Amino acid sequence: MEGIAAKARLLVQTLVQTWRNPKAWVDAAYDPRTRAAVFQALLLLALIFFAYEVVSNTAANLKKQNIASGFGFLNRAAGFEISQTLVSYSSKSSYVAAFMVGLTNTLLVSFAGIVLATLLGFMIGVARLSPNWLVAKLALTYVEIVRNVPLLLQLLVWYVAVLRALPLPQQSLALGAGSFVDVRGLHLPRLIFQSGILPVLIALLMGAAGALYLRSLAARKKLETGETTPIVARSAGLILGLPLLALIVGGFPSLDFPRLGLYNFEGGLTIEPEFMALLLGLTIYTASFIAEIVRSGISGVSRGQWEAANALGLARGDTLRLVIIPQAMRIIIPPLTNQYLNLTKNSSLAVAIGYPDLVSVFSGTVLIKQGKPWRSS
Question: With 0-12 CB in 10 A as exposed, 13-18 as middle and 19+ as buried, what is 374?
């Protein structure tokens, strides 16, 4: 803003000087700073005029077509159902609630995909550098095949050829522990907390925070005195003990097992096939790129670090965990972040298999349904 104001003052001063002294017009024409200020001012005026024309023509066309603009429709009842919701929603809810359902569904599959793709990608990336010839070649085959097959095709294969080929609920496959899988999805037992899950989650977070604090104290003590303080038992006690105490106070949860009804399973927790297909596709596809990022990051660490770790007698696993991967993270993290963003954006392909993410709810349902109700009377 200060630069624009300075250029504006320079332009005004130049115009005043040239108005008083006509000969200054010639000097101003050959002054690069004056020419730059004039050209930028003309460009700014042209952009303002273009924006005005676009807005005025759009408003005129909307009025001519008798279409009302604005966001007043957001408070109206949506009038359609959404198959999978993490928040309370019904057909009588507003469009704002529908948008929130799509947003939470997108965040759910993105977060789960990021966690699973990171774990799988790190394992495949480390396997790419394995001294075992078979393991390294299998990892290479996975990377070269999966990342060169379009994600949309993989999603369709998982959804149509795999999950939709499962048997009907009456012939569902038992997975053990009260779990079943069929064409309607994965049916799992559901925990029902008597006092809600929030106190348990708060206790778990407090335990994790306490464990991190103990770790920092142990690291500081080791740095100052050289003594090692065992904290594994204490950390496990905090992480497991506090949630257990919350369960004792609030009551232990009960299990709601899925039961086969007349046409479908009732009770329990059902994970729909659209979500599973999208999660599998995003995880497997993104993991192939993360594997190459991890491989390049590990390869970027100096060979001398491996030799120094071997000289200290460290096993290969300890060398990777304690020496190589911590140094490789500075190379891995920037492109890894890009892959996280790509996974989140690729979740918009859910519209092809019917998963109600933000793009599917907005473009596939709201815009189509609201094409006529947006019209003003």
Answer: middle
